[in-house]
Specification:
alpha/beta; Rossmann fold; seven-stranded parallel sheet; seven-stranded mixed sheet; elongated; transferase; phosphorelay response regulator activity; Sig_transdc_His_kinase_HWE
Amino acid sequence: MQDRMKDEQDTTTETEHAGTGTPVILGVGASAGGLEAFQTLLGSLRNNDDFALVLVQHLDPEHESMLPELLSRRTTMPVKAIKDGMKIEPGNIYLIPPAYALDIRGDVLHLSEFDSPRGLRRPIDRFLESLASAQGPNAAAVILSGTGSDGAQGVRAIKQGGGLVFVQEPQDAKYDGMPRAALSTGAVDMSLPASDIISVLRDFHTRVTGITPAIESDAEFIEKVARTLRFRTGHDFQGYKTGTLLRRISLRMSVLGLERPSDYLRKLIQDESEADRLFRDLLINVTSFFRDRASFEMLRKKVLPDLLDGKGQGDEVRIWIPGCSSGQEAYTLAMIFAEEMSRLDCHARLAVFGTDIDEEALAEARAGTYPNTIATEVPDELLDRWFVARRDGYEVRRELRDMVRFSSQNLLKDPPFSRIDLVTCRNVLIYFDNKLQDTALKVFHYALRPGGWLMLGSSESARTEGDPFLEVSSEHRIYQRDKAPARPLDLPRQRLQTLPPSPPGNERPREREGATDIPDAALDALLERHVPPYLILGPDDSITVVGRGADRFLKLPEGRTTLGAGAIVVPALRQALKRVLTGLSLGDHSYRRINVTDLGEGLPETMTLGAAILRDGTRLVTFETAESSVDTSNLESDTQIVIDDDYVAQLESELDSARQTVRTTVEELETSNEELKSSNEEMMSMNEELQSANEELSTTNEELQTKLSELARANSDLANFMESTQIATVFLDSELKLRNFTPEAVGWFRFVEQDRGRDIRDIGTRLDMEQLAEGCKSVIRSGMPLEIALSTMDGNADVMVRIAPYLTEARDAGGVVFSIFDVTELSRYAQAAEKATAQAEARMEELEQFYRVSPTAMGVVDHEYRYIRANPQLAAINGVSPEDHIGRLMTEIVPDVADSKINAARQVFETGQPLIGRIVRGTSGGEAHFWRMDFYPLTVPNGPEGDVRAVGFNVTDITEIMNLQADLRRIMRELQHRVKNMLSNVIALVNRARREDGDPKVTLDTLAQRIRALANTHNLLTAENWTSAALRDVVAMELSDIYGEDRVTMKGPPVRLNARATLAVGMAVHELATNAAKYGAFSKEEGHVQLRWSRIDEGDGETFVLRWQESGGPRVSPPEGGGFGTVLMRSMVEGTLGGTIKTDWNPEGLELVIELPWATATEVDYDSDVDPLRQADPVP
């Protein structure tokens, strides 16, 4: 059958904790001897551990803790003293401060003052309980060295919340009280040396992530585990939700270091203690008083008035809490009902039944003692009324305790209570599958009276077949039972068997020979029709099976009780049942029966009570009435009992007398016991206070011992430091009395060991004591350090005295400490350095003056190409003042040449070598300029080679030089080009002349004239720098200067032709003049030539037009073929210049028109090979 799982948390709590991958929060508790254990524990941490550690120790509230300082030296993780409201983060260590209790809610730490006096405080328990509530399975606890039992209750809470619990091995702990107390709870997963705990925790969380998939892949594993648990513990978990079983089994496997499900199953079968351990892990007892206070308030307002309505004197209010755990909810309901019944003046008797299968939890519930932390759960007025404060917590008052009865019961297997007014079963059904949930709801329906009330957990529902429960509050899960009669329960019956069930994997015991299997349906029909009401009792008289109709003969008594038959049957049958069972055990019969009469109201007048021993050792009790159809005539029977009323009365009188005597004795013993308990409690309280004080003193002593060791080391370090510095140092108190000194100080003062405590002014010295004493007083008054220069009395040495305040731990001035430095050599060096500095400053001033007045522009840039320096000449070039250069980028000052400069500076930074003669073209004052720039590295004096800290550069304006060089190169290039062209023309003329057939003399004369004309044009161009020539000068040279101005008319605007056009036009005019002299106008005295030129634009571009017109010569007729002159003209005009020649052979005289593109004829065409602009860096 399914067992009860106690968890008063919301149903999603465990799932949320388990699946989020939230880093583990490790609560570490310790007391005496804990510092050493803490240091060992922290020594095994790694930088990448994502644990968050919270260290809780018993600390003296009157002294500041030195733990943060001491522990931070043992780990690289941040160590933080906790402040209220501090959020906890993985990878950090948190320390509780003295005099405060610590709680955690969510991931936020909260500090509060203790409610209990010293000696009764349990800070470790309190924090661990809040940690379990806040973090569930993501919490872990570690209990280290300490005396007492603080932490024992906290580890139980951590375990019940699904977390891990580690304890330092008692033999490894300096004080083993706390580790042993934790081990005694049975909630500890592992007991290890402190040095191994962190590594095991780290390995556990690495391993557990791989175990779950392995379990999920084995479909039968969970079922086998459930069967094994049933065999070992008698409790069936086969209807339990697989997810929760999976988490608990994974936890146990990881703790045991097992990775395969088959290995764990073998461990479970072979080791009885492991089955018990898993069973305990599955029983998660997490509860509290007034948990989910709003639900209880709704119950009080909505349910109690109706429930108590009509209840009066002699009536009973019956409440049942299945899965009551350690009793907090049962007592909560008892208090609520008692308060409300008192308010409503209801005199009914209150009976609260709390049941559970966890005997340990029930023992806690029956004891009714709870820790001090319940003060935060129970309202103050209820705490004062219903609880008694003890040294270590609170105890339920007898008045409240008598209202509640606790007993062991399996909700789904054992007979339920009846006529119940209210059932509260919160967060139990969430662990059942649907089938078991339906079974539980049927049990509740059976137990509740018609119209009774049911309250479930926040994630549970009473929806089941037939909807026998009416929903009253969906938010708080409160339901009301319908009015229908109770449905018969089909609880599982125990079959008669002679052997206990076999564990999984074993062969089933051989069936009894001749045994006949009876189908369950047939067996049920036989029991219903032919068998009287019956009970089956175990060896201890506990009821294991209740037959149909037997509940009418049962009644639960008040107060503490068990499920024994003698306590549960109606009072009229108790003596008879006792006798028949006693006779059955003493005789040799397997069956006994007794006739009983006068059973009371609601029961038959007569009946037969029978008892039989079954084969498995259990006993069968039957209630045979006249209504029963069972034939018992063949059964062996005792003689009918005749009861002697007088004898019975006498026995009862003696019994009453004995009872009175016993009661009197018990009361006297109780009185004595109360006095002894009171004295014992006082002693225990004093002992607890002394023990707590002793623990705090032990902790403080441990811290002080550690601090003393550190102080001893520090003192040794200081002594060695003072010895090794070889500096004269003197320590004085506030009255200038000697406290200490270094050996070197003896060279300046006549110190002896006995001088400690003497006034420094009374001790002989080589120094000016008056000035030194005044300096010391000044430092004591101001608290500020001071340096003074002194000379020895003989003047042979100079010293520097550095005086500083001597600060106490409270940062108060407790005197002075001064050191003496012989600076005699340093003084001489300082004087020499001062002289050298003056000389250097003079040189620097000279350099600065040179920098300012130098005609060369100079500047310096850093690695970011920002100006560090700029002289006025550079400022004049850039058009920005020297001051405005500083700190600005080169791209801001001169953007048009910045890239060129930056590239050059970058090369110097990278190579450490100067870059000389870089030519840069740019503009200054709106005019184009050329500058020569030299870049050089500036390095740190005596620094490493190649360490360039800045780049300096000089700028020289070479615009005029560049222009002259350009002109020279152009002229030389043009001259070379023209000479080459002229020679080419001459060679062409000569070659042409060689092919002439005429008179050689004439041919040579013609050739000479043409060469002369070409030479004249060259001379004219040379005079003009080969740029251009005036057209009138070219024409006059060939015409008017030879034939006279009266025979030549020239008309046109001033025009300058470029070199190529000048040569072409000059040769054309020469050929035309030569032809006119032979055949045209110049061949007669009256002949005349008119030469006109103009610049026209007919829409397709400007054109230069030259017209040659002859008159007064002989009549002209077109020649039969063109001569060499015509070919030469067309070659130069049309071929070279792209122009045209038009000829009109008018008889009155030749008319020839030359047309040239204006740009081709007039624009100066520099040779690109000698253009100086092509030699400069282009503008970006």
